[in-house]
Specification:
Elements lengths: L1 H28 L13 E7 L6 H9 L8 E8 L5 H8 L5 E6 L5 H11 L4 E5 L4 E2 L3 H6 L7 E12 L3 E2 L4 H18 L9 E5 L13 H11 L3 E12 L5 H21 L11 H27 L3 H22 L7 H26 L11 E4 L2
Parallel strand pairs: 1-2, 1-4, 2-3, 6-9
Antiparallel strand pairs: 3-10, 4-8, 5-9, 6-7, 6-8
Amino acid sequence: MRWTFWIAAALVVYAYAGYPTWLWLRKTWRRWPVQRGPAEPSISIVMVVRNEEAALPKKLQNLRELDYSRERLEIIVVSDGSTDGTERILHEVAHDEKFHALCNQLPSGKAAGLNDAFSIATGEVVVLTDVRQEIEKDALRLLMENFCDPQVGAASGELMLGDRANGETGRGMGLYWRVEKRVRELESASSSVVGATGAFYAVRRELLREIPVGTILDDVLIPMIVARQGSRVVFDSRARAWDRPDLGSQREFARKVRTLTGNYQLLQLAPWLLRKENPLRFEFVSHKLMRLVVPFALLAILLVSCFVPTAFYRWALGLQLAFYGFGLLGWAGWKLGPLSRLADPACTFMVLNTAALVAFVNIFSGQKVEWNQPSLSKEIRA
């Protein structure tokens, strides 16, 4: 049982500290800078929406205000079975020859919508974005500078959780996201990023491939397909989009469960990710899959601490119970003064690993987390 404790502890330490340390060492001895420069390729901005009449007008205005030549830019929006006023809004802007709208009459999911958009995109580079986030005015131009490097096949922008007036939050999921972005920066500095920021990333159109309908994590699978073809996937922290840091505890938890379920799904959809043909196999396992193992390792550590009757394991049990206790107090919203600095990350840690357990149950019980219905498409034209 003691070996179980130490193996499990090593897995947890590697997932959260060992892999980032390895990336830092690799960056130190083998930095691989991106050859950036002024660039203005033709661009197709692609977005899939469903029932977004409240957010869509603001997003479309945001896209129009980006600092990029209008002659080099087209916008493609796919409505995925919307039943509110989304299609009406798309009809109102369809007079613009640089704007294309596809309306799927039945919801078929984001992946199917992306495939529809890819089939009509004409830009040299396709930019994928979501409706909720606001892209900074110069972010698109900055992101395109990465494509001056012929080795770059995809480039990811940076998602900022907070508001531009007060800056990025450092609490809750914001704290987790800042750590996640640091890992991506280190991956990009010496090789390629495992996945992209779904709110804002770009891919050379020639490298795009149709993705399986029902794919949850297009922002991981598409970049991995790019890397499989021998191109590099980079992260550019200068190209930023902003999002709200907290959508409510239930929605945040559901979103994290969906993401982690998507990691399991990738193994079903793309088993080549674990084979030699994936040049980022080590990074994929370390960055994505190890986090799925952590909750089981934590459970093993707790159980061994309960049943091994020595002073060390009793001490370890006390530390674990104290940590989880702080997390529960943070979840309950208790004001703990200076101790809140511990309660908040403890709560976030517990939420993330609970979400990983729920994701495990989802994938092995066949629980659906994405629509998978046939679509009937029509294009709105001027």
